[in-house]
Amino acid sequence: MKKINYRSPYFWGAVLGVLFIAFNVLSKPLINSYQESQISEIDFSKLEVKKLNGETVTLKELSKSKKVVVNFWATWCAPCLTELPIMEEAYATIKEETIFIMINDQDLELTKKYKDKKNYTFEFVQMSRELFRQYGIMERPTTVLLDADFKIKKIIIKEIEQKTGAKFVKFLKENL
Question: Which domains are seen in the chain, by residue range?
Answer without folding.
Answer: 43-175 (3.40.30.10)
